Amino acid sequence: MIAEHIGALLVERGVLGELGVDAFVNFQPAEPAALVTLYDAPAPVAPESSAYAIDQVGLQVLVRNRDDRAAMELAWQIHREIVGYAGTPATGAPYVTGVSIQTSPASIGRGEHGAAEWSAYYVVRFTSSGDAHRA
User: Fold this and answer.
1) Can you say whether residue 42 is alpha, beta or left, with left for phi > 0 and alpha for psi between -120 and 50 degrees?
2) Taking CA atoms, which of 3, 11, 56, 132 is between 20 and 30 Å from 75?
3) Quick check: 135 pLDDT over 80?
4) CA 104 to CA 114: how far, in whole Å?
5) Which of helix, strand or coil describes residue 119?
6) Total domain count, the chain
7) In what order do the strands lie in the sheet with 96-110?
8) How many CA atoms lie less than 13 Å away from 96 in the CB half-sphere?
9) pLDDT of residue 118
10) pLDDT one-digit tens code per residue, 35-94
11) In which domain, by residue range, is 49 found?
12) How do strand 35-41 and strand 23-25 relate by DSSP bridges?
């Protein structure tokens, strides 16, 4: 859910090319060799989430490229773009109150296709809507 909205934000800002072409959400195809995948992931529940319409989820960013330096540079560009972000990243998206760092971009080696892979993990906090019992 939030991965798609953050992906749209990164496309709008010119950091990523096009979702479904060289940027993907929640799955990573074998091709192209150079791509970014954004995954919705778990995150610790904020204590106030039980009573207030505030949720937080994890966001994993994986950058793959045959050129290790290009993968590293894009991973850090994405990092600089989203850390501390607050706002509505895309039409229909919830209001994001903040993006915090869980792990900074780091190399996780080469994948099965020989391309360099860099990964980073974030926690995205946002307002929830439509809750039956949370204010």
Assistant:
1) beta
2) 56
3) no
4) 22
5) strand
6) 1
7) 23-25, 35-41, 54-65, 116-127, 96-110
8) 27
9) 98
10) 999 999 999 988 888 888 899 999 999 999 999 999 999 999 999 999 999 999 888 899
11) 2-127
12) parallel
